[in-house]
Records
---
Amino acid sequence: MLVALAMAAVAVWIATHTYWDYVTVDNPPQGEAVGNRYYAFEKLTQRFAIHTRQVPTLRALPAADGVLLVDDVRGALLDMGALEKWVTAAAVC
């Protein structure tokens, strides 16, 4: 009983003498991440053994079991009909 009381007293002391505060840490990108905005995404997919590549145009879509990440559809040279066929083919697989 005395040990439980001492532990409770320590827990109360810690709770009353500590606080959470937000600290802003300036950690700008370094190395390849400076010029490649998808650097973290590419490294994550590599950990899952997924091959990634950046292409200048979407005229040739990836395989039906592939993954497609489009940042800006307005700026992409994209055939919407071909994209719909690609999505349908992936759903069938």
---
Amino acid sequence: MTCRRLLRCTRPFGLAVAILLVLGTGAFAGVGVWTLTGVPLTATQYTLTTFTLTVTDLSLLDEIGCVVVNATSSFSVSSVGVGNASNGRAWVGSHTSTTFTVQSLDGGGRLQAPASLTFTVDATPLASGIHAWSAVAYRQQDCSGTAVPGVPAVTITVLTGTPTPTPQATPSVTPRPTPQPSGSPMPTPTPTPSPGQTASAVPSVVPSASSVASPRPVASAAVVNPPVAASSGASAHPPAQPPPPRRGPRD
């Protein structure tokens, strides 16, 4: 009788516990507790900044294999650096100009509470003001399937800055081509001798020994004997006259 009364008393209690467990499990699974934190939370417009973010899984029922963060068009993302998670498994990262993704290389690297992953993001703020980076987590490491419940975000305050001026390109100077000489070259001028200085003539042709003509013999003229003076006591003879020239047959 006592046992029967005890069972009757415990039945409502057991049913209530079962209902609480079912409701509690569904409620906890729906919360999907995981966090995304980052530093620094303040940056300057137009200044490249390295942000360090940490994803932590706090749910005993959900695993995280991929996280996608939207930095919005107010930031220009240039690189993502990822190491190993706290469970020792490797993760990798990728990015576009406004979003970045970190994911496990395999299913064994998924984050299970209280595992976490820390990574860095290089981004340049393009607009001043307060901006929220929203994030979505997935169980599958290829970022497919149903997202893990939860909407963590990182809020960053961007101070007004001055854009860096773009350096002007220095124009290159093209050297002018060297002009090519046209026509015949000018003759070298002959130096003019100064007054009182005689220029020596240079023979144009040196006669060879064979070109020199041999002298012709010259006929000797008739020798005319001069008159001999008469000595004292001798008769003087008239001087001899030269013979008359010969005449030809026509004379």
---
Amino acid sequence: MANREISLGRHRRAAYILAELLGDISSAAATLRDGEHFREAAVLFEKKLNQPLAAAQCLQRGGLLAEAIVIYERLEAWETVAEIYDQLQQTEQASVSWRKAVSKHLAAGDRLGAAKLLEERLRQAEEAYEILWSSWPAKPQAKGCLDASFDLLARIGDHARAQQQVRHLRERVQTSAQLGGLSQSLAKLANNYPEEQVRFVAADSPAASLRTL
């Protein structure tokens, strides 16, 4: 019966059958969403099925962005909130939300993710660099952050700082594991960094050939 109503384009009637007669709330919500009754579908997703993310996504799909933002903020889905504000060209609110997303990544120990948002979304390459460089050698994602810091310096063309950074790497190392990671990073620099002098300094570094303290 519900399928017949759907085939006739009567999604509300189909949803009523599914929810009230068959007790299938999940299918009723999906039917309303597919019939583009987005607000009604979102109510079922959030209130009856306890699926706030599905509700927010439904509202967003329907262009009900202000209502979607309210739920996304409650879920602390800051990147999605920021993307919606960017879509609406509300730059100040977008910036605030991107900042909250950065803080959330840092709180979770995802320093790479935080730096990526700072550089790509907030256009704050220097701040992103500081997070990456300060992570070596003992913070979460230390080696990945070290490699990413050199990648960032290459992108912005700050090869002088890249050379300086190579020269100060060894003095920060405290464990054999850190030295091993450093050797790998220096080998990568020596082969792949886009500026010749940085490649030379990396290859010439004593740490490039050491594996243990």
---
Amino acid sequence: MSLKSCLMMSIGAAMVFAATPSFASSWPTNDLVSQSAFNRCADAVTAALANDNATEAGLAKCTKAADLAELNSGRAAALSNRSVLNFQRADYNAAISDSTAALKIDGRLVEAVMNRGAAYLAMHRAGEAVADFDQALTMAPVHVEKIYFNRAMAREDMGDLKGAYADYARAARLARSGISRSSR
């Protein structure tokens, strides 16, 4: 039995974080057209996560939002959101590509770092996943427990059982305590 399985049994349903991407829910703009397009993109991501089903229409909404964005931050957020849809469709290469493109525009977009790490993890590219999760932890993420859990899975894939156990334990403590933000 893996460390992840043991920990999941001990903490129950409180930890439903496994390789789950994150998305941006807003971006600053004065342009109502681009804001409306972004809202449709964010709604498509919310629906895809709720229904576990990303559609072509949702991808098109995020592509349109990225194309219409008047600010680089808006384009980066739309690309990051599109990466979530690609992840949901198990198109991990596209998710990595969108996340990387978002990070080239705005290297501070923690959601894009987390999304890329989750896609690497899904592809069993554990070393790259750990690197992204390490970076995300330095960026004051909202759901730090999710990152520790995902990094634990990547460490377990790499055979680093001691590091995996430490991350699973930290993720469980943070989830139980309700702490959303934490430093490494």
